[in-house]
Amino acid sequence: MKKIAIFLFASGIAVFTSCGQTSAGKANGSTTSSTASVETKAPNSDYKPAFVGQTRANAVKTQTAYTFKVLTEDLQYPWGITSLPDGRLLITEREGDNLRIVKLTGEVSQPIKGLPAVNPGGQGGLLGITIDPAFQQNRMVYWVFSENVDGGTLTSVAKGKLSADETAIEGAAVIYRATPAHNGTLHYGGRILFDKSGNLFISTGERSDLVTRPKAQDLQTSLGKVIHITTDGKPVAGNPFEKQSDARPELYSYGHRNVQGLAFHPVTGELYSNEFGPRGGDEVNHVRAGKNYGWPTITYGIEYSGKKVGDALQQKAGLEQPVYYWDPSVSPSGMTFYSGDLIPEWKNNLFIGCLSGMHIVRLVIENDKVVGEERLLSEEQQRFRDITQGKDGALYAITDQGRLYRIGKK
């Protein structure tokens, strides 16, 4: 028997059931807000934001009626999700070298073989995925994975062609490796997406350990960076450091801790990212060419032990401030801007899958500042790993527990 809870709000009724949710509100589809934040827990530190609205933004609530549905629970630690031209979903499974195609009916394909071996230890495995803008002509797929090499593991990028029968990746080849290797299994970053020119943006982590942290500031390494490469793995012409002898030409931005979210704003076309802080200090950043995002010199987080990070700085000249941060952490992972028409009030809002937060966060951004935050599907108690907008205008989200959700208009 389904459990049903009905909650009355001034703006409408929200009905939660064991298989989905309908949230009904005002007929005009507007978003209401209040002066209260959705975050009710105490922060880990007494650090102060650099500007109003940088953290604990006003709560907002979706007023358009929407539903969600679990399409399948048969995935094994899914990590990355993207849409195929016909609307089906291409999904990576972190702990194996498997790709899956999932129909919108929830039917999961057999594993697609032919990928290079991954190291699934720790936070590694088969990670982010995207398809070529010309996929209908060339059937090319691009993905990120953790690779075993001499000296440890590293974040690698590969490409290959999806076979006509969709059972294998043909001609798989590694096109980029984020060096140096490290003997550890944490902070690989791992997101990948195409820009409007047909080049790739890749995110990496600084591999977590104290000895590797400073490499986020080192322009001669690929760790803790956003990388900008061609589909052959070469630096994109015009990258900010291409003429700097002491820097790698493929680097686009630096000073990142562990970037697991990348997305382009649908109106401005500008790149945004999110990254994990330590204990608190998770960030959303507006990624600009050549900029330094501060880790580990500045942070709004503290060490897991409770100690301060470095000199306990949150601001420093020449280092970029996050657009938004969370304390305590929500553990932001995959993200997407909504550009569909099913739920107009969501237009241009940023949606982020959160792991420890166990919800999908919705951020309303105006003039590069967050003016509202909402937390969706928190009652599902899932670790949301990635989210994408489908061809039908709905949102599709995957969780560490193996679920695939569809979120759309009632």
State the main characteristics:
four-stranded antiparallel sheet; 1 helix
CATH superfamily name? Answer: TolB, C-terminal domain
Structural class: mainly beta
State the distance separating the first and last CA atoms: 22 Å
Round the mean pLDDT to the nearest integer and report it: 92
How much helix is in the residues? Answer: under 10%
Number of helices: 1
Strand order of the largest sheet: 6-28-27-26
Give the count of structural domains.
Answer: 1
Indicate the overall shape.
globular
CATH topology annotation: Neuraminidase
Radius of gyration: 20 Å
Order of helices and strands: EEEEEEEEEEHEEEEEEEEEEEEEEEEEE
CATH architecture: 6 Propeller
The unreliable regions are 1-30
Q: Tell me the fraction of residues in β-strands, as a range.
A: 35-45%
Total strand segments: 28
Mind summarizing the main beta sheet?
Answer: 4 strands, antiparallel
CATH class: Mainly Beta
Can you walk through the features of this model?
This protein has 410 residues and is an all-beta fold. It has a single domain, classed as 6 Propeller (Neuraminidase), CATH 2.120.10.30. 1% of the residues lie in helices and 41% in strands. It is built from one helix and 28 strands. It has one helix spanning 135-138; strands at 5-9, 12-16, 21-23, 32-37, 58-61, 66-72, 78-83, 89-93, 98-102, 126-131, 140-149, 152-162, 169-182, 192-194, 200-203, 225-229, 251-254, 259-264, 271-275, 282-287, 324-326, 332-337, 350-354, 359-366, 369-376, 384-389, 395-399, 404-409. It has a four-stranded antiparallel sheet, with no helix packed on it. It has a four-stranded antiparallel sheet with strand order 10-11-12-13, with no helix packed on it. A four-stranded antiparallel sheet has the order 14-15-16-17, with no helix packed on it. Strand 19 and strand 20 form a beta hairpin. The protein is globular and about 55 Å long. It starts with a strand and ends with a strand. Mean pLDDT is 92; it is low at 1-30.
